[in-house]
Amino acid sequence: MNGKFSELLSLGFLISQEMVKNHGEDNYYCKYSEDSAVICVLDGCGGLGSRTYEGCGGQTGAYLASRTVSGAVHDWYRDMGRTKWKDEREFMESLITYIQKAYSVVGDYAKSSIKISGSMVRDLPTTIALAYAWMKDNELVLHVVWAGDSRIYLMDEDGMCQLTRDDVKSQDALSNLYDDGALTNVLSSDGNYKLHHKVISIKKPCVIIGATDGCFGYLPSPMNFEYEVLRNLTDAKNIYGFRDGLKAFFKEVAGDDFTFACMGFGYEKFSELKGSFEKRRNFVEKEYISKIESDPDNDELIEKLWQEYRKLYERYLSKNTEGR
């Protein structure tokens, strides 16, 4: 898509909910300017980061980790958000520098205030899923960065697709829902992680979504996640109804903190956005959801439907991915 960035960016909102007040391990950062926009969702890893820190209000390493990195992204976007990046390497080196600096400051302080409670395998571990959009040579470009199992999605008229590949031992997005696979890669202050990165060009109107696993991890299938986003979008009268409907749904089904952020490009008004997904909503409902709901305990049926659905859902997962 071509045009001014500020004209192409047409919507954005954030949903975030703690299961335990003031102890939520999710965090986020979302911001836009005339030249770029960023959404970032993070999920502090409760099992890996369960040790508490007396000098940090008795909070866990997971709680501190997600806030440390969201603060780093805040500072990075404040200072670098309008940069005309030369290439992907410059972009990643800049972001990693800010993350490592934040970890250095917070990590040193946290270690000096450890209260012996819980078992900590990693220092300040958290997932991250970040999408940064900007105009390059009059083309809308999306940088996608991640570690762990928080996700960035792209949703257009062809359907929802996952842009990030989960760092877990499970094989795919369906098996991840049932295997409870261990995370194989997350950010941490020890620096022992891989930050994945891919760049895509956005050719047509779409919605970019960032979500922690509290949004999708309690649903029967990846098809259900797309359907609930579509249902709440097409049933809404305005952007606020879309946001509030999704939040109510996540509160009903989630057994964990959840964070959902989105930004849309190429829609002049909400009615255009809504109308562009009516056909897809009806298709997903007919071909997948109605069949799952008619026989919800039929694992073979869900697997069969997933094998068909994943052909488009995984259309970006084969793209080259760099790790730093």
From TrEMBL:
<feature type="domain" description="PPM-type phosphatase">
    <location>
        <begin position="10"/>
        <end position="265"/>
    </location>
</feature>
<dbReference type="InterPro" id="IPR036457">
    <property type="entry name" value="PPM-type-like_dom_sf"/>
</dbReference>
<protein>
    <submittedName>
        <fullName>Protein phosphatase 2C domain-containing protein</fullName>
    </submittedName>
</protein>
<dbReference type="InterPro" id="IPR001932">
    <property type="entry name" value="PPM-type_phosphatase-like_dom"/>
</dbReference>
